[in-house]
Amino acid sequence: MNVSGLSTANFYDAISASAKNRENKAPPLTASPIRTSPPDTVTISEQGKALSTQEVPEELLKMAMAPGWYQDFLPASSKLGTPESYKVGYFARMETYRETFKNELSEYGKIFNETFESTKKEFGINTQNDMYEKVIKNPEYSESLRQAFEQKITATPRGLELMNILGIKRK
Asked: Can you give the pTM of this predicted structure?
């Protein structure tokens, strides 16, 4: 239908031409100055400063201790503070590793925990204090525990297979 005597095509052409004229007359964009804010500051109270210089109580150390060899039997995705963990892209690689081996990690974790707990019981290690006194403070006893644990976990066919799949190398 032709209401104004213009065809529909001419009506759209007129709108399009009007828009082009406005585009050509738009003011150029100018960059706004970068605003900087002052750096954040942190204030540590005197109480906080005093606490930071105190030694960690032995009871807390006992609770957090594991023998040095313990991490030798862990998959790479469970290790932090290693030279590899500081490399660029480490966490992305570990996320891919965890996703790829999700089922294997879960199965190995169960075997690892059961084997470690049964080995500790055989050695009379029933509390964190036992672990600290008998293993952490006694390298010879710790080595005996390590050997017994390694023998048990590798004697389990699936444990050894999972270690190979997950890239856990035997010493």
From this structure: 0.62
Q: Calculate ∠ Cα 58-62-64, nearest 5°.
A: 115
Report the alpha-carbon distance of residue 22 to residue 51 in Å, rounded: 67
| 165 in Cβ contact with 77 (< 8 Å) | no
Backbone torsions φ then ψ of 167, nearest 5 degrees: 80, 25
What is the rounded distance in angstroms from the CA atom of residue 1 to the CA atom of residue 42? 73
The whole-number mean pLDDT for each consecutive block of 10 residues of the chain, a chain of 171 residues, reads 46 48 59 73 80 71 76 86 82 91 95 96 93 91 96 94 91 69
Fill in the amino acid letter for 60: L
User: DSSP for 113-133?
Assistant: HHHHHHHHHHTT--SHHHIII
The whole-angstrom separation of Cα 3 and Cα 158 is 84
> Radius of gyration (Cα) for the chain, nearest Å?
33
CA 78 to chain centre: 8
Closest CA relative to residue 162, chosen from 117, 115, 106:
106
Burial 85-103 (b: 16+ CB within 10 A, else e): eeeeeeeeebeebeeebee
